[in-house]
Description:
two-stranded antiparallel sheet, single chain, Helicase, Ruva Protein, domain 3, 2 domains, 7-stranded mixed sheet, Rossmann fold, alpha/beta, 9 strands, 12 helices
Amino acid sequence: MVSLRQRLARRGLAPARSRGQNFLRSEATARKLVELVGVTPEDAAVEIGPGTGQLTRPLVAVARRTVAIEVDRGLVQLLAESDLADRVELRHEDVLDSDLGGIVRELGPPVVLLGNLPYSISGRLLGALLSPNNPFRRWGFMLQREVADRVLAGPGTPEYGTLSIWARLFSEPRRVLDLGPDEFEPRPRVRSTFLVFDPRADRPRVDDMSMLRRTVRAAFGQRRKTLRRALRRVSADPLPALESAGIDPLRRGETLDEEEFLRLANALSACSPDG
């Protein structure tokens, strides 16, 4: 049986480790992922990193319209010459530079977002998507297990950090499938987890997103320091804000939940000279 690596080699292509290219092997697994995201005929779909099209095929079979964003020129050409050419709209670009909001407006809602994300971009992309203005109905990503654990982590755990806060504030993430290295080619050195995210129905109002980001970064930038000390990177005297938010200044940032962080950021904004 000819392997995926051999089929790519015949076209002068090879998985790029620098881009974290580990392609799904099983058609059944790809179909299951589309089912787990709950893609419907009413949805348009955006896929990040279609690779060889394994996930794209079951996606275009359901979605009313599909856009695939691929940074690798060789893979774009491969897909353009495949049986998918007439069913998917290929965009040769880096998703970190893509106007995802513009694509959603072009497609018209509802739109779902899927992807098998390499470690090198997963944190940055999730950080951008986990915001009050995310335009997608739902999104599902294949992530390295450690990244998924950080997304799902709760206060007081070693994995809890900035990514956990953004996920808890703006989405309802859930672990739907764990995959071992044998599910991919080439075989990665890590295990993978597929997470599905739904926007929070009760998205909190954020008065000052910049202050919220600064507050969270300061709290986790010096995890072992008390909030009274760590927040001096944000305010010369954070005590009034901590008291206003009802938070003990001797607590550490890793013990605060997302609502406490939001309350604290709002208090810091109100107590600042420009507040």
